């Protein structure tokens, strides 16, 4: 895309510069340089011919002489200075001949022809005086005007076709160079393969970007049949094949840095697990920037901190959501020491009690790199899911986060690539398939199983 943009901009710039240039017309006349000698003497005639060719090369340098240009100004009664006229006149010696091609350029084709003729005439007068012999003898060198200048009909510049082709070529080269530079300098992850290489963990799936997710972060209603919902179901399925010899009941969902979508992923993954009939509990353990309860439209006054401070029993703080077996333990009040609370023995004891009541517990934890909260609670969990954001999470961040989690001896189950572009054949096939099932009674039943977010809730960001 950048190659096309740069190429188009270069072509537009070339066209604009061409349009703004003043057309220039070039008029040409030819001068013949000869040396008089005795034609009966062959040797002298040959020497005269060689002398004429040598004179031609030096005469072309004299065409910008100030005296010559002043004579042209006086002859034509021009309002320009001699130096300005000199900038309009050029001379070129034709190789292996005694001819000089004199060219005058001006925005006016008629004036260009007049300047060319006047310069040739004055130059023919000037050379004999420069080549005068001692004793007042006439010079043996003569300049003759072969042909008068014709008034040009077409300008020699600008050349739209040449300029446009040159601009396109330059734009294409710049675009390719810019794309190559961006590719080499861009260290963000943009595919599941890159997340696997950076983290060293298997990819669980990718969640496509949805422009409506900022208004409806939690999948519900008709969204249960959209591409995002199917993506979370694929992640749910992938989890069943990770380390099948060990049960992973408490799942830690975290990310490298803020605004990568880990809270939204935790909410929707928990809902997807609840669709299978398992008893699922979502714990909002992000005690610095809690968002899970807001996304689900639930009050967050009493929650995890209330339970850890013995201000409420967990059976009272847990809130049901929707018609599926899904419960939420909000964060509660934000404490001054989140890391200590999450790594406390009380937190470990709480998770042990909740294991007996629920089939799956999803813990929404803060990002790993800015704070130590996620690493504090990680040892109490059975596995961690690492969320990365397409085009934002850097490969080095992903590697550091995965290594930090492994040092806590928690199983890193895999990675989820969030907000990937919706393009390619998979998206087309999904849209074609689902469009044939609109109005299916089964879809109505499925929609009734999940309660959508509050219709009048304020728009929420997709970060977390």
Would you give an account of this structure?
- With 464 residues, the protein is an alpha/beta fold.
- It folds into two domains: 134 residues, 2-Layer Sandwich (Alpha-Beta Plaits); 257 residues, Rossmann fold.
- The protein is built from 18 helices and twelve strands.
- An eight-stranded mixed sheet has the order 5-12-11-6-10-7-9-8, with helices on both faces.
- Helix 1 packs antiparallel against helix 6, helix 3 packs across helix 5 and helix 8 crosses helix 9.
- The protein is rod-shaped.
Mean pLDDT across all residues, rounded?
82
Strand content: 15-25%
Named CATH topology of the largest domain: Rossmann fold
CATH architecture of the largest domain: 3-Layer(aba) Sandwich
Number of strands: 12
Radius of gyration, Cα only, in angstroms? 42 Å
Distance between the termini: 30 Å
Helix-strand sequence: HEHHHEEHEHHEHEHEHHHEEHHEHEHEHH
Low-confidence stretches: 38-46, 424-463
CATH class of the largest domain: Alpha Beta
Question: What structural class do helix, strand and pairing data support?
Answer: alpha/beta
- Main sheet characteristics: 8 strands, mixed
Q: Spatial order of the strands in the main sheet?
A: 5-12-11-6-10-7-9-8
Shape: rod-shaped
Roughly how much helix do the residues carry, as a percent range? 40-55%
Count helical runs: 18
User: How many structural domains does the protein architecture include?
Assistant: 2
Which homologous superfamily in CATH is the superfamily of the largest domain?
P-loop containing nucleotide triphosphate hydrolases
């Amino acid at each position: 895309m950048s190659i096309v943009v740069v190429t188009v901009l270069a072509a537009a710039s070339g066209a604009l510069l061409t349009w703004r240039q003043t057309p220039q017309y070039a008029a040409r006349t030819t001068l013949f340089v000869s040396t008089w000698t005795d034609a009966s003497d062959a040797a002298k005639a040959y020497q005269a011919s060689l002398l004429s060719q040598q004179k031609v090369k030096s005469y072309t340098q004299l065409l910008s002489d100030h005296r010559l240009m002043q004579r042209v100004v006086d002859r034509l009664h021009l309002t320009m200075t001699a130096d300005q006229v000199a900038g309009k006149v050029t001379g070129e010696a034709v190789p292996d001949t005694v001819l000089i091609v004199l060219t005058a350029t001006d925005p006016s084709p008629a004036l260009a022809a007049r300047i060319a003729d006047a310069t040739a005439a004055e130059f023919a007068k000037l050379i004999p005086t420069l080549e005068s012999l001692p004793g007042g003898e006439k010079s043996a060198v003569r300049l003759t005007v072969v042909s008068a200048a014709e008034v040009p009909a077409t300008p020699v510049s600008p050349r739209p076709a040449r300029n446009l082709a040159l601009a396109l070529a330059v734009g294409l080269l710049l675009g390719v160079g810019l794309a190559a530079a961006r590719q080499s300098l861009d260290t963000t992850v943009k595919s599941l393969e890159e997340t696997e290489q950076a983290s060293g963990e298997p990819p669980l799936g990718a969640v496509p970007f949805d422009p409506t997710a900022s208004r409806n972060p939690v999948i519900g209603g008709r969204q249960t049949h959209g591409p995002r919902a199917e993506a979370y179901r694929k992640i749910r399925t992938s989890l069943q094949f990770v380390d099948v010899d060990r049960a992973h009941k408490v799942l830690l969902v975290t990310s490298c840095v803020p605004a990568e979508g880990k809270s939204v992923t935790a909410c929707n993954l928990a809902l997807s697990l609840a669709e299978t009939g398992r008893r699922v509990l979502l714990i909002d353990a992000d005690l610095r920037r809690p968002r899970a309860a807001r996304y689900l439209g639930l009050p967050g006054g009493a929650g995890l901190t209330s339970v850890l401070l013995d201000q409420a029993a967990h059976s009272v703080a847990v809130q049901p959501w929707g018609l599926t077996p899904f419960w939420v333990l909000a964060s509660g009040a934000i404490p001054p020491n989140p890391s200590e609370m999450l790594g406390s023995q009380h937190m470990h004891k709480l998770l042990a009690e909740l294991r007996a009541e629920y089939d799956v517990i999803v813990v929404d934890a803060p990002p790993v790199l800015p704070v130590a909260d996620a690493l504090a609670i990680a040892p109490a969990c059975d596995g961690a899911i690492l969320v990365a954001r397409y085009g934002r999470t850097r490969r080095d961040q992903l590697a550091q986060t995965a290594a930090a989690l492994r040092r806590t001896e928690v199983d890193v189950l895999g990675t989820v690539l969030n907000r990937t572009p919706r393009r390619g054949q998979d998206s087309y096939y999904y849209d074609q398939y689902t469009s044939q099932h609109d109005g299916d009674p089964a879809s109505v039943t499925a929609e009734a199983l999940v309660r959508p977010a509050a219709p009048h809730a304020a728009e929420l960001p997709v970060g977390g």
